[in-house]
Amino acid sequence: GQSLEQPSEVTAVEGAIVQINCTYQTSGFYGLSWYQQHDGGAPTFLSYNALDGLEETGRFSSFLSRSDSYGYLLLQELQMKDSASYFCAVRDTGGFKTIFGAGTRLFVKA
Amino acid sequence: KAGVTQTPRYLIKTRGQQVTLSCSPISGHRSVSWYQQTPGQGLQFLFEYFSETQRNKGNFPGRFSGRQFSNSRSEMNVSTLELGDSALYLCASSWTSGSTDTQYFGPGTRLTVL
Fold first, then answer.
1. Which single residue of A22, A29, A109, B83 could bond A88 by disulfide (Cβ 3.0 to 4.6 Å)?
2. Which residue among B42, B56, B105 places its CB closest to the CB of A97?
3. Selection from B95, B103, B93 nearest residue B22 by Cα
4. C-alpha dihedral (B95, B42, B44, A76), degrees to nearest 10
């Protein structure tokens, strides 16, 4: 089957850097996406890696290594508003569907 | 441009009833996907539609069904509700069913089954 594994929770201090990992088992996918969801809100798109390497978007960066079946989201200069759930997701090449990880709850402390 | 809208936002039903949820995608988007979200389970894929055709269906019982209309609006239906169907139901739209299309999510419908 296809699955994505993420840590359930991560805690970090305001101003710090945090990395949220995502390991996956899938027969084929187009790329790795990351979404952010605040409590009571809708998931919103953050970043996408089609190729191996690092993609940077402001304070957020995302990395993909297909050979290691691994990716991560890096959040720098953490702010309180970054407290949210973060989901990795892949677009399955075998069919028309997107598979999401269970999500990582990030707590940012003052 | 208006975002993805879902109606109703909140719904309370009892076991055995059925429910229909509606999703209006962003104007111009032709693909709609549905997800069930429960605490600790992430987003579980339900269906994906493109141009009124169901492209794929997730691992859910036949009580879960859906459709898409010619204006790309989509509905999902759950019959014979069970307590375990209580969840947040999210729909997402994208331009196509392409490999790199970003999905834009609606606020969700919170379904509670008593």
1. A22
2. B56
3. B93
4. 20
Yes or no, beta carbons of B90 and A42 under 8 Å apart: yes
pLDDT in tens, B41-91: 789 999 999 999 999 999 999 999 999 999 999 999 999 999 999 999 999
Encoding tokens for residue B67?
A: 């459709």
CA B72 to chain centre: 13
* Tokens 């790309």 belong to residue: B72
Residues shown for chain B: 114
Q: For residue A110, give every residue at least 6 positions away whose Cβ sits within 8 Å of its Cβ, in sequence order, or none.
A: A13, A14, A80
How many whole angstroms separate alpha carbon B55 and alpha carbon A64? 27
